[in-house]
Write a structure and sequence with these properties.
The protein is of the alpha+beta class and about 375 residues long. The protein contains 16 helices and 13 strands.
């Protein structure tokens, strides 16, 4: 029988990685989450972006909630949820949208700095609460998630003429002049919109997804994803008028979500397949590409998080060579981190998402429902 040397090599690396784990981590439902939580989550539930002024964001809190659910850690989940509600929504999460930014203000006080919401974080919180309610049989989580979902539909969704129904990045500042709208495609995971359309069929979620797919050939015309773009009411897509075109730290999530989302993202994967050629050419996902041309702008370094985020995308495309290359790079990155190299919140969050899915700690079914690994053991 012929042996795949690369698979054997990765297997041995995984074996030694497990041996190197602390005893408590070996018994965990998800050891990499426990390491993330130890570094980036305070005892009170605040998820800290230690790289950038020790700030906290609704995005970070939403990701923390999701990871805690995947890891089957209701203790972590409850603390993160409580901090999020108390500090980003004045204790009224579900009756209020959370503000997106908390940190040290100019007057030296640690408090909320921007009360405008971020719709991607809001959707992740709502989705995770509803799924926590189902998986942990806790009705109050489901109720709170549905309340938040109604607020998102009311404040962060617009009817945009021929462009269809759009999820704006937030309630304030994204409706521009002349019936134009700023739009971020990384805010729309396919599995999530499928789930919400099933759970809330009277809501706008199915329309949001179908509008996105209709715009997708324009959005990804060059074969790569932009961080942001402008959509007008005539259904035209154009570059963001207030910043240089970029496909980078937001856009990398577009590939990851498409890889995780199964059949309903097949067309997105087809449109985005040229990005895999860039990965193969440079050996890793480039840090920055020009979404107007598909050309690499900055490729001298690839963030580790991009490598993690690319795993579901490359797996969905069945690009085994590139997939194994990213696995090897992530392994050595983890070893360097253990030896003291600094890591940051966003990179590690992307790795938890992409590598966690790739390693089988969670998946999504055809209705977008979360299927954590621990569920199969019960």
């Amino acid at each position: 029988m012929k042996t795949n040397r690369a698979s054997v090599w990765v297997g041995w690396l995984s074996f030694f990685w497990v041996l190197a784990l602390p005893a408590c981590a070996k018994d965990s439902a998800w050891p990499e989450w426990d390491r993330f939580a130890e570094r980036f989550v305070q005892a009170d539930g605040r998820v800290i972006d230690i790289t950038f002024d020790a700030k906290s964001t609704s995005e970070g809190q939403s990701y923390g909630l999701f990871f805690a659910l995947v890891a089957n850690r209701p203790d972590h989940f409850e603390r993160i949820l409580t901090w999020t509600s108390d500090n980003l929504a004045n204790g009224e999460l579900g009756r209020k949208l959370p503000g997106w930014l908390w940190g040290k203000r100019d007057d030296g006080v640690w408090a909320i700095k921007d009360t405008n919401a971020a719709s991607d974080a809001d959707l992740w919180i709502a989705y995770t609460l509803m799924e926590a309610g189902r998986l942990w049989r806790e009705p109050r989580y489901d109720k709170q998630g549905r309340q938040l979902l109604a607020l998102i539909a009311e404040h962060e969704v617009v009817k945009a003429g021929k462009a269809g129904t759009l999820l704006l990045p937030g309630p304030v500042g994204f409706e521009l002049s002349n019936q134009r709208y700023r739009f971020n495609p990384s805010y729309l995971p396919g599995f999530q919109l499928t789930y919400l359309a099933h759970e809330d069929p009277k809501g706008p979620w199915a329309d949001i997804w179908s509008s996105y797919l209709k715009l997708a050939p324009q959005i990804f015309a060059s074969g790569v994803a932009p961080d942001n773009l402008i959509v007008d009411s005539k259904g035209n897509v154009m570059p963001d008028s207030e910043r240089a075109p970029s496909g980078s730290y937001d856009a990398i999530r577009v590939y990851m979500w498409a890889g995780m989302s199964g059949d309903n993202s097949k067309e997105l994967l087809r449109l985005l397949s040229p990005y895999a050629k860039l990965i193969r050419k440079h050996g890793a996902p480039p840090e920055k590409v020009d979404p107007a041309t598909g050309a690499v702008v900055k490729a001298d370094w690839s963030p580790p998080g991009f490598m993690g985020a690319s795993l579901p995308y490359l797996r969905a495309l069945r690009d085994e060579e590139s997939l194994q290359a990213q696995e090897k790079s992530l392994f050595w990155n983890a070893q360097q981190a253990k030896l003291g190299r600094a890591t940051n919140y966003y990179d590690e969050a992307l790795i938890l998402f992409g590598k966690g899915w790739h390693d089988g700690y969670y998946k999504f079914d055809s209705q977008g429902r979360l299927q954590p690994k621990w569920l199969a053991k019960e």
